[in-house]
Each structure stands twice: as structure tokens, then as C-alpha cells.
Amino acid sequence: MASLIEEAPRFFGYYNLIFLGQAFAYTALLSLVGCGLGFLVGFGLAVLRNERIVGFAPLRWFATIYVEIFRRIPFLVKLMVVFFAFQLAGFDASMFAVAATTVALSASAFSAENIRAGLESVHRNQWDAAETMNMGGLTALRRVILPQAWAIIIPPSMTYSVGLVKSTSIASQIGVVELTYAAKILNQKGFSAAICFGTILILYFILCYPLNLFASHLERRLAPSRHR
Amino acid sequence: MAYTLQYGQVTPYLGYLAGGAWLALQLAAIAFVIGWAIGLVCASVLEYGPRPLRWLVKAYVVFFLNTPLLVQIFFLYFALPDWGIVLGSYQAVLLGMAINAGAYLTEIQRAGFRSIRKAEIEAAETLGFSRIQIIRYVVLPHIGKVLFPPLSNQYIILTMTTSIAAIFGVEELTGRTYNINAQTFRSFEIFSIAALYYIALTLVASGALYAVGRYFFRIKGKVF
Amino acid sequence: MPHLVIDRLSANYGTAPVLQDVSLSVERGEIVSIIGPSGSGKSTLLRVLTGLLKPHAGVVHVAGAQVDYGSAAALKKVRDRFAVVFQQYNLFQNMTALRNVTIAPTIVKKRDAAEVEREARALLEKVGLSHRIDAYPDELSGGQQQRVAIARALALKPEILLLDEVTSALDPELVAEVLDTIRVLAAEGMTMLIVSHEMGFVREISSKVVFMADGKVVEVGPPQQIFDAPQTERCADFVRRILRH
Predict the structure, then answer these.
(1) Residue A81: closest CA among B74, B199, B183
(2) Do C104 and A133 touch (CB under 8 A)?
(3) Could you tell me the pTM of the whole model?
(4) pLDDT tens-digit profile of A72-116?
(5) Of C52, C80, C94, which is closest to A131 when you measure between CB atoms?
(6) Where are the beta strands (DSSP E) in B120-169?
(7) What is the ipTM of this complex?
(8) Alpha carbons A92 and A1: distance in angstroms, whole number
(9) Residue B123 to residue C75: CA distance in whole angstroms
(10) Contacts of A147 in chain C (CB under 8 A)
(11) Which residues are C7's β-sheet partners?
(12) How far is A130 from chain C (nearest CA, A)?
């Protein structure tokens, strides 16, 4: 413990703080880009899976298989597959792009499932009414179903996003300089593992905890609103 | 030079990989059991324990739910030796996974406790059930039914999480994949096969847990 | 020429037959009611007419033209002529009463918003809800919701109004307000096909009553026949049981 206090002033020096700050921003950016992209793809898949909107069954099967595949591969393995797939395809992609794609694949599979459940939570009779009034599937989705489904969709999406923020630590394996990789570098420079990893644990906590709090706040506030 | 996929070169290793899958299942199972026990104790403390202890458990849960498992294990593996606690890679991974799972399983089991319905217990009391009988016939079946689905999900998530062990050199499914990759350099082939192993593994686990849930608890929802 | 002709219509849920050879006709301005025990296929018939459930045999003519339920374009056209009021109201929960009434005319029929809103306000006044136009469905009583649903259906200017057990979900004291609204429409000459359990109302308002059981039409006749002198044992049995209380 005493040694920790001893090395603290040196560890929290100007350059290290900048370095950690950048790594923190990288973790946040990686999560944001990956989750954002994944949510969009997941939304598309959820729409494809909805019988009321898409009448063509093979598209629904495709969406289902996609979801089942990508939610069942561990993040690390997915990361390696994406990494080598990019290499195979001849993309000269940055490590950030590889990691963001992996996050997006994970997020899309989860979001598709979650958004599908959200859409299905809106009572069937809302679709019936819209249909008999000649609203098309997408119009009904936008005007009637989604406004009622958001409250169900958003809280678990946020909770899952927090999970992915944590998973981005695995991107350190391919050299993305996010928080975990930064800690490893500082550790190799001679700072103790306790202070390096202890510090980034706190930084991850600072990133994740408010998100989780906000998610449970939303869940409590949104759940019983205009919804049967 | 164009790269051609050659799955033939990695087929001799399929059995070796299957052994890794078995290790992954074991690792997940041990971590799950320890985590479940931690969760049971912590959930009991949260519901019935004294205030300072409750705060301590709360802090544990919140901290571990909001930080990455990988970094937690890094801390155990690299930082603890400074204080004279040296863990092997397998122990560090197992301990990290168990403590991490413990936090999730605390939350899950607490929700289970909360779901016990007072009215049912009162009904059993008026019917003259003894305390043991109430627990045996009313409380446990109910908790089982409520807890089985989230616990099953957690087990499957834990199975996938075991892949992190490869980073510490544990030779489970992903670790063995790294080994094969180092020998054959058929990277995409072997990692995509590993992915298929995980898909198969979790599908089988989902199916088995679904069957168990249906048979013992009459739960119809799908698992994971 | 009858306004609506249903000729030997059959439909299945999965493999279970829910409608078998149902035939009936409705003249322009006529009010036809369908009665029968639950599970007899009354509501299913309305679902088939509006294309929510595909028929597997039989034909439907509206104003002399055959409806092709397999074609999206034809379905769109027939839905323009029908409007449905559902048992559970099915109001859009995320919209005010007024928006519920204006949404389809503005975004489906692309009519002028100001004009639609004027009409909607008039319709809501007609159903006695001009003071509640900005309320959301969950702020309204069941009877009020159902009257909004009727206004919503009328805003589509349908030729034929389909009413599916519109009072079944209502508390008894709220039934009258909805029935009164329907009486007003009847007086205006609206063609209506009504599924209902309100036998007194059915008897009073209908020119023809259809008794259905097990997905089939068992007996058709004027209300006096169905309620006072039913020709079939099934119908007599049903009427006896339902009129006892």
C-alpha cells in the first residue's frame, strides 16, 4: 500500500494523464460507434423478422439465423474472426475498425432480439387497427408501434451497451490503444500492476456506472406509461 | 498472393478442439457454482443482513457489474503478487470469473427472493403446513421457477466468457485455437471453426436447459 | 343489388376450420346483426371481411364487385369501403383522441389536414366527446374510448361499418352511451354489420339477424323470427338461454 502512495505522483503525471484520457476517449468512442452501428443494423433485422412488415419468410429466417449465430460467439473469438476476415478480404482496416465491427456485430445481434421483443410487446390489436385503416406496415411501425415500443426497447439496450463497453477491453488483444491496452503499456513501463489496472478499473466504472443508473432510471420511469 | 481457404489443414485438430470445449464447459461450471454460492450469500445479506454488511455487498456488486472481467483478472493475476498472493493463470481466471459471476448472481437471486409471494405462504400456514413443508412445497418450487431462466442464461453467458482464459494461456477452446493457429497459420479457418464450436456448445446447452426447465419447472420460454 | 354479398366463405386458423360456407347479404342502408355463442365465428367473419385473415374458399362482393383477398391492391380498395370498430377499441395508445381520428385520413388518404381536423372535431362532437379531444386513450373510460373508435371509423367515410362486439368490454353502465351513438348512425342510413351480445339492441335495430354456431350460419331471419319463433333447435336453445337473464 505504501508503495502505491509513493508511486502515485509519478503515475498521475501530466503525460500519463493525457495518455489515459485519450485511452478513455478511445474506449468511449469504440463503444459508441460499435453500439450505434449495431443498433441500426439490429433495427433493420428486427424489422425483417416482423411478420406484419415483411411478408417474405426467407428474409425472416435470414434475420433469425444471423441473430442466433452472432450472439453465441464469444467477443474474443468474434474479434479474431473479424480480424482475419478483413485480412482475407484484403481490407487494410485499422485495428479500431476491426474492433468497432466486432462491437457492432455483437450489438446488432442483441439489438435485433431486443427490438423484436419490444415490437411484439405492443398489443396485436394496434397492428390490426392500423391494417384495417390501410396503413402500410412501415407506416404503422413508425406512427403507431414504435412510439409505444421505445419504452420497452431502450432500457435493456442501454444495459447491454454497458456490457459491450466492458467487452471493448478485449480489443486490447489486437492493439487498440483503449484503456486496457494503455494500462498494459504503463505496466510495462514499470508502474505497478496494482496502480495501472486499479486506475483503469475506476475509469471503466466512471464510464459504466452512470449509464447503468440511467438505464434503470428509464426502466422505472418509462415502463408503466401509455401502454397496455 | 491470394489466400485460399483450406479447412483440410485444420481438420486433424477437431478432436483437440473438442477437448478444449469440454474444458470450457468445466471452467464455466466451476465458476458458476462458486459464483452461485457467493450470490446466494450476498443476496441473503442484501435482504436480511445488517446495514454495514449490506453496504459492503452492494459496493461489491455495483463495482463488479460496472468494470470489465478481463481487467479484473489482470488485476488478480498481475497485481496480487505484489502483496505476496501468487495465482496461477487458471486460478486467476477461475477466481475472477467466479467473483464476477457472483455479482450478477447476487442480483438475480435477490430478485428471486423478492418474488416470493406472502399470500401463498399465508395460505400454506392456514392449511397447517409446517415451516419445513412451506419451504419444501411453496417457497422452493416458486423460487426455482423464477430463477431457473435467468440462471440458465447466466450459465450460457459464462460458457462464452471462458474464452477470456485464453489470454492468460489457459488451454480451453479459445486457447487451443491459438495453439493450432500458431502451428498451422490457417487463422481464419481455425477461428471460424472455434466460433462454430461455441455456437454448437451454447445451442446444446440452451436445448438441454430448456428441456430441464420444461420438465422440472414447467417453464415454456426459450433459454438464451 | 345488395351492398355486401358473402358467398360460401370458409377460413381456417392453422388447420382448424373457423368459418364454413358462410353466406349472407346486406342491402344498402340495412343493418344486419350476427349473434351466436362465443367461438361461433362471428368475429372471425369480420376479420376475414377486412382481410386480417385470409379466406381459403368463397367469394365476397362489395357493391357488385368481387373482392380478391389475394391481391394487396384489391385489399386496399375494399378496406377503403369498410371501417371496423373493435371490441377492445384498439385506439392508438400513443395518440390523443383527436389524433386517433385524424391520422388515417391525413397520412393514408393524404387529405388536407385542416379540413380533416374540422371533420374530426365535428365527429367527436357527434359522439359526445368534444370536451375530451386532447385526452389519451388511457385517460378515457371504456365507453368514451369506444365512442372515439366509432368517430375514428367514421372519419374514413366508410360505406359499410363493421362493429365487432363493441359493447362487450364495457362496464354495464357505459353500454347505453355507445348504443345511442350507433342508433344515430342507423338513423342516418349507414350500412352496418354488427356482431353483438346485446339482444335487446339487436332486436330493436336490425332488419335481419344471423345466428351462427360452430363457424356456420344456422339461421337467418327478421328479429321477430329469430327471437320469438326460431326455426332451428340450436337457435331456439341459444335464444332461450340468453333471454332468460
Answers:
(1) B199
(2) yes
(3) 0.88
(4) 999 999 999 999 999 999 888 899 999 999 999 999 999 999 999
(5) C52
(6) none
(7) 0.93
(8) 46
(9) 55
(10) 94
(11) C59
(12) 8
